[in-house]
Amino acid sequence: MIQSLNKPKDDVRVESSVQKAKEKKLYTLRVTNTTVILVPLHKRNEEYAKEYRKNKMGLIYISLPISGKDIEEVKLKAREAAVLLEEDGHVPITPFEVSPNPNATYAEHMGKDIQALLECDAAMFLQGWHDSKGCLAEFEIAKIYGKKLIFE
What we know:
Oligomer: single chain
Helix content: 40-55%
């Protein structure tokens, strides 16, 4: 038992989260490979896990350098990152999904990318993002709007 220097011994009660969960009749539910949550028994099912992933784990915008790069290599990197996020229960959004027109201007691409980013819960920045003007703009916007920031 841990004792506080500020309180008498009788006022200190240390419990693990497992003990608290048992007292509240909560059970573990694995929602992704790396995420386990505590739920009441009636919510301990795959349908609830799917709903949780959709509503709580959220949309993640993938930001990566594109201009001046081999487009097929960049698309592959974006897809690899998307697969990892999907495996962990997230819904990834790539610049190629939101602005697929190869003939669009840079401004059109960035406008659609920023709109998508603002609709997401988080932004993931892949290697080299700090050398890309577009990624830097997306970073600042994500930061200003309080998005969760994830870095490769």
